[in-house]
Amino acid sequence: MLLLDERPVKLGGRAFELLRLLVQRRGELVSKNELMAAAWPGRFVHDSNLKVNMWSLRRSLGDTQIEPIYIATVARCGYKFIADVQVGIGEIEEEPPLADPLPLSHPPLPRGIVGREADIVEIADVLAEDRHVTLAGAGGIGKTTVALAVAQAFAPRYRDGVCFVDLATISDPTLFGAALVTALGIRGNTDMGLAAVLDYLRPRQMLLILDNCEHVLPAAMIFACKFMTDTSPSRLLATSREPLGTTTEHVVRLGSLPSPRSGTGLSVDQAVRFPAVELFVRRAAEWSDYEFVDDDCEAIAAICHSLDGLPLAIELAAAQIGRFTPRELLVILDQKLGFSAARTDAAPPRHETLMATIEWSFRLLSPKEATLFTLLSVFSDGFEVEDAVFVAEAAGLTPIDVVTGLGSLVAKSLLSAQARGASLRYRLLDSTRRYAAERRQVDPACGQALRRHAERMVALFEQSEEEWNWREPADWTERYLGRIADLRTALSWSFGDQGDAILGIRLAVAAITLWSETSILSEAQARLEGALALAKSVACDDLSKAKLACALGWSLFYARKSSNENEVAWLDAIAFARRAGSIDYQQRALVGFAFYLLQIGEVARAITYLEEATSLADRDRDLTATSEADRALAWARAFAGELSKSRPVLDRLAATYSLAEGRSRKDANEVYRFITVRFNLPFVAWMQGQADYAARLARDAVDAADRGGHWVSESNALGLAALPISLETGDLDALEIFTERLRRNLERERISRWVSVERYFSACLRDLRGDPRAVEDIRAAIDELIECRFLMRIGSYLAFLARAYLRQGRIAQARDAITRAIDYQERQGERWCRSELQRINASILLEDGEIVRAEELLQLALAEARAIGALTFALRIATDLAAHWAATDREINAVQLLAPILGEFTEGFGTQDLVRASRLLTQIEDGTSGVGL
After folding, report:
1. Is residue 71 helix, strand or coil?
2. Per-residue model confidence as pLDDT tens digits over 749-797
3. Kind and range of the H or E element at 750?
4. C-alpha span between 768 and 735 (Å, rounded)
5. Are 407 and 52 in contact (CB under 8 A)?
6. Cβ(626)–Cβ(617) under 8 Å?
């Protein structure tokens, strides 16, 4: 295990072999041949591959400064490990935790910065005063490099870190919002588009970098305007070839690197003080072991000046030093690029210089290298060697051609390479990708490139489905979330005019696991709707359509408003699964549809579908969805008041699943089921008189979900169990803690339906603590839930509102609220709370002087609570009735009613219901001790 600052460092096998050999021979020169033999035993590889892997190894070790700490290059010979090495036997008391995977938005480390120190300081200082800064300049001028350097150097100024959004990975401006959501790591459903991004940023102090805005300029401008009118303390740093055009942006124009004019007769020491020359010499030495000498000063100065001091153009020229001397290179540039020719008015001079330099570099490639370079433009983001091999096969390139070509393109600065996890990932820079894409579009040999790219994405994401079952969840997510840009590209091509619909449908099906695992719900919804509509119109198998419909149903399930489209999706899923003969997907669809029905308050229909789902288990008890069907049916029966049928099933499931300690998918599934059954069991246990047990179960679910990073599950546990139990038991401290946890959790993974739930419970807390204005916020939150058709438990929410009105003496409003509550309860078949609503209605009648009706209703309510086995409700009703009887000189009746019910409890003696009942019983007994009670 390799540790850096007490944190594990992931290295690929080759990088580890290189490091091992260098450390073993600390202080000695290790030749290139020796290193290649260690990393690629028995194979011939281009030495540029060694340079790529050494550079990535240095990056992994943080050894990227000008003067190395660990590994030094010996020009034209090899490398040395120069740090001190101590040999000993160490002990690790416990396995160190794996480093958290870097989010996709984490800024990549910049290469060694040359000549931009003043620019970096200026931009950082401007950002301290202005919330929006745009770094503008020509392509290849180094905008991204400078932005990354600002992020790296001044990240401590931003409490919540830095988010890097690479807009070069999208070609469709409509994906601008999706790119921000993904980069920021906003999970859940984001119905409001950019508003969700602004909501996420509002409480945070972070630096948001929007890189390469020029091709999505209108979308970037709209976002920047909204960002500036918001109150977030965050800062926005954009890079673009032109300003975004907002009235509030501060534009910093990035100029060329200073270079000496030719004919000045500089020495090496004088010339290298010019940043353009320093960059040229450094890159030439890095890739070609070049040593700067006085005789080359004039030629290199002239090259840098001719290239307008453009960093990318200088790097492309420096990459050819291994092939040409500086003087030969100068002559070729004068001949081939025609710098003395008149420039057109259509393009900025520096842009022409860059394009001409890329063109020149391209023409120096071998035919196979040129073909590979153009093919690689199909990738929107980083890719691995296996991806390139797959795509290049269509153009007749062999794996050896690809491996050798990648190394050569990196050496020539046409391609970048960096370590990503345990492997190397390659990437075309924005300017080179655009040029390569233009070449690809006119090259017949590359005609199948986009198809091969889509086929590669299908293979990759179908592989992800299989790996999901065994790969560690965090590792799986890091591996495949990094491919989302290319997933988008492949889907857009597949569903486009020149694409392949069947291939696109396969890819959408394969991507369901990624969208689900990462909760990228809004983007998934749009893609799934299109894929399913197309699948219905072409020759597509029913199982694929069932999978698409199921996934669409779940994505709509978490939308802000439950719509009829959700029901259509679930019914489609059921029908397709039946036609496909898939018991597994029939059960999944039936369970999903039932959860939707419970959400909109159709309990009886939900039970019907769940009974069908559980009957399917008789044919296959090993189905994944079987335990979910059992749990859902028990949950639905609890809503219907069938507690005696519900409780044994939930108890069995709770005893079945435990908190597994491992990191495998099997362990994660075990934990998920441990959590989900504790959404439901507390609700039943509390009604049956086990308040302490219910509270403990709910807290266990919340804590387990939080430890595992299951944010959706944590919100579910809070909204369905922890918050209701805290409110009903009168534990206001717990209610405060859990509302804050839900509020914080919704910032991490926004599920719109829980926003209104959080507002409801927060307002209830304020009401119980004496805020007279809270009642209107309770009413507004309930109205939001009804408008969104999130009707589960809406009767009990309205009942609390009625009690709040009653405490303020607003009897008319209380009567209206309880009438609405009873109406929803009866229409939805939620018998579980019928007795409680009757009790509250009776309280209103008593307050309004209708004593006889109130007593009759309390008697009916008590019988109802007893009939369903709801001991807690029976105690509340008995307490109210006993209090009324005691106040009307019927103390003996009151004690005979209340004492036996209170005696049935074995726990929960600190809850508000038992405290009130015990206190009342004591008061009655003390007041009537003389009459023999």
Report:
1. strand
2. 778 788 999 999 999 999 999 999 999 999 999 999 999 999 999 999 9
3. strand 749-750
4. 11
5. yes
6. yes
